[in-house]
Design a protein that fits this description.
The chain is of the alpha/beta class and 308 residues long. It is built from 9 helices and 15 strands. It folds into 2 domains: 86 residues, NAD(P)-binding Rossmann-like Domain (Rossmann fold, 3-Layer(aba) Sandwich), CATH 3.40.50.720; 203 residues, 3-Layer(aba) Sandwich (UDP-N-acetylmuramoyl-L-alanine:D-glutamate ligase). A 7-stranded mixed beta sheet has the order 8-7-9-6-10-11-12, with helices on both faces. The longest helix is centred in the last third of the chain and has 15 residues. The mean pLDDT is 93. Pfam families: Mur_ligase, Mur_ligase_M.
Length: 308
């Protein structure tokens, strides 16, 4: 059984990644600072080895197949230093995710807002059509039991794009690794919390993301954001840029319906971005083989179930 070690398992995505790797048949060990008794008990229950709160470089051995490094790990981390001394293969989270999904159709949802909602809608439609998919998410999606699922069978992978720095070893941004076949770009709102010094640097990261789309891929972009719109106009000729905006609705007898060529579907609109996000998810699902009529039916049921 191959051995894997994950450093900084207190990072939410890394914790779920540890469980997903173990479920694939690897012998998994983890470490981290700030581990609670509840977390330690969960890791033990799931079969992952953890020697307690803190770093244990003496536990790393040459027979470890690879090490996955959390985004918050520093260069002076004793386990990272030990892994380098042993010559172990060290991968960042996005590097590992790409390696495990490179034979799948990768759908990457990126931008400053709406990612979780769009992913929830895609998940809802795929589940209703009984289409298998893997996923790696930084957000918790109510329709999914955890943030990461990896399998050999699924031919689709849904990834939540993150524009933060990858790791202590790699100063590129996480978005640059995934090489999507289908990319969704919502809007761009720079803040200092994004690991980018200026709005221009922030926008450059997303230009790099768009240029990383696989040959013949799709860029589904929000037409209402001027920066995103300009970025879409600059993509390579082999990439199909597909704009989206707010979906049309109609009011009848005090109720709201999605107005479509397949009829009107009842819908609950929880926020002002819902109808915009819906169109992004619809276009992505269409590329994955979900007919619009089936998507509308699934999203109608999904949205109505959210109604208080």
């Amino acid at each position: 059984m191959r051995k894997v070690h994950l450093i900084s398992v207190t990072e939410p995505l890394l914790f779920d990644l540890a469980l997903a790797i173990h479920q694939k048949g690897y012998e998994v060990s983890v470490s981290g600072v700030g581990l609670t008794d509840t977390t330690l008990a969960r890791l033990e229950k799931e079969g992952c080895t953890c020697h307690g709160d803190g770093w244990f470089p003496e536990r790393l051995t040459k027979d470890i197949h690879f090490v996955v490094l959390g985004a918050a790990v520093r260069q002076d981390n004793p386990e990272l230093i030990r892994a380098k001394e042993l010559g172990l293969l060290v991968l960042s989270i996005p590097e590992f995710i790409f390696q495990r999904t490179k034979e799948k159709t990768r759908v990457v949802v990126a931008g400053s807002r709406g990612k979780k909602t769009i992913i929830s809608m895609i998940v809802c439609a795929l589940k209703r059509q009984k289409l298998a998919f893997d996923y790696a998410l930084t957000s918790e999606v109510p329709l999914l039991p955890d943030r990461v699922h990896l399998s050999y069978e699924a031919r689709i992978a849904i990834i939540e794009g993150d524009e933060h720095v990858t790791s202590a070893l790699e100063k590129r941004f996480q978005l640059e690794f995934y090489r999507p076949h289908i990319a969704i770009l919502t809007n761009l709102m720079w803040t200092s919390a994004t690991d980018h010094a200026t709005p221009e640097a922030y926008h450059t990261t997303f230009r790099t993301f768009a240029s990383s789309i696989e040959r013949g891929g799709k860029l589904i972009y929000f037409d209402g954001d001027p920066v995103v719109k300009q970025l879409a106009q600059e993509v390579r000729e082999d990439i199909t840029a597909m704009p989206y905006d707010q979906h049309v609705v109609v009011e009848k007898e005090g109720k709201t319906y999605l107005q479509t060529r397949y009829g009107d579907f009842p819908v609950y609109i929880p926020d002002r971005f819902f109808l915009i996000n819906l169109n992004a998810a619809r276009l992505a699902c269409r590329q994955l083989g979900v007919k619009d009529a089936d998507f509308y039916q699934a999203l109608s049921e999904y949205s109505v179930s959210l109604q208080p």
